[in-house]
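User: Hi! I'm working on a homework problem where we have to compare a predicted structure to a textbook description. Could you give me the structure for the chain below?
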Amino acid sequence: MTALLVRNSTEKKQAPLVCMPDLVATFTTDRSCIERQLGVPCSKEYWSRYEQFLELSRSQMLDIPFECLDRSGRCDWHLLGWLIEAEYRRIEQDRRRLDEAADLLPFADKLTSLEHRRLRMEYVDPAFAAKELDLARLEVLAAQEAAPCLADSLPISALVYAAESTEALLRRLQGWFHFYNGYDPLFTWWVDQPYTVLENAMQQYAELLRSTIGSRKSIVGEPLGREELQRELLHAQVSYSPEEFMVAAQSEMEWCRTELKSAAAEMGLGDDWRAALEKVKQDHVAPGQQTALVRDLALEAISYVESENLVTVPDLARQCWQMEMMSPERQKINPFFTGGETISISFPTNKMDNSQKEMSLRGNNRSFARATVHHELIPGHHLQGFSQERHRPYRQIFYTPMWTEGWTLHWEMLLWKRGFARTPQEKIGMLFWRQHRCARVIFSLGFHLGQMSAQECVDMLVDEVGHEYDNAEAEVRRSLESNYHPLYQLAYLIGGMQMHALHGELVENGRMTQKQFHDAVLHENCMPIPTLRALLTGDPLNLDFDPNWKFLSAYSRD
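Assistant: Happy to help. Predicted structure tokens:
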């Protein structure tokens, strides 16, 4: 492959020998190959091999004659460089996490070594393997004994990493054992007993770690700190500080509050927006009728964007979407709808107690649902995903939540501006979610800056946004506990502001129609929005392209 990429810089300019989409597609495929072959938890061998791959990829990219690339190719060149840097950061972060939790995982090297030998199809010496398993068991027992004392001096993030890694290594161990067991009589004779006791020890150790985590905090999360948070923001191609984003979100929230009071007045409730919100929450469908409501709301949104000529909706996208009902367990983390081709519907089930049923009914009322369905389906995530698979699909590897959630939030802003909310109740439904996006910026950055505790984040959603308590707790749990990127919650509003500012620059200034703009965003596929801006506006995409863009000054909600 290298021979295809390297060209003599003294040659006359002509069509480059390499096609950037092919190079990106090859990077994607090779990365997946390395992940499948070497992606073992806590594997130093994997990290070393992956860095070699990144170095080769960067070298190949730098060998390309940049001046011969067209604008799309130059965009891909910059995006690939951006991704390679992100992957270096990811590997370094993984190393730091293992170093932080190393005392809780003394057995990791032995288990990763056994698995790598299996993946390389090396001969396994049953007696040696049995000895390694027995030594690993002793290390697990030693870690189990030391864990209660270590837990007091380690951050929650180290305990979470140790628990997740122990569980992942256990799954690998089980796969390793069953690969040989029964096929090699000598293996079974030597390994069965030490494997069984090690498996039991690891299960008990994982349970101990989970129990220790649960006793520390009801919601688990570890603040990044300002320095790391600023690095994440710069890598996301945003040149603002966390504090500047918190100020912007607070300003947006104050606007929401003013509009909420106006809607309350339309309902005859003066400026009591909380009373108006309470009335909206009480207007929900009866059990068994939520799917029909979602269907009707989806068809309404599709009809609106098509009749207003806002975006192209292909026939298959209009026809090929589905529903599923969200389980009670999942609703503890996702109390509201999630979407894509399949919209997952939150609504009470018979397994919930009465208070949970009431909260779910109130949190998934008619007006809230109307403001959510178009976000999840069309013109939101379903149309987005449908297009990604059909237009420049190789760019899906450049995923960023700023583009993914920024697209849907831009639609919320645009539909508000165009009067999609016809009644004060529907306005409150849209404003509730917009205010929620503001709160996400404030509480997620506040938490990572060390200014807010997890409980204060929950209280903010209840007191300042109007969430039901259980729903607020689920939102914070999802934000801080799961594998969400630390900027994901910020990406809704901030990505929406970026996308809406770009829309204003191109559409409201008459350079594109609504449909041209929205189709262009979808057809270029995902990338950081400052890079998308350069691509769509015709700004130079030179070798020294700087994605710095002060979009807050260009953003307008009016």
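For your comparison, note the following. The longest helix spans residues 185-216. The radius of gyration is 26 Å. Good luck with the assignment!
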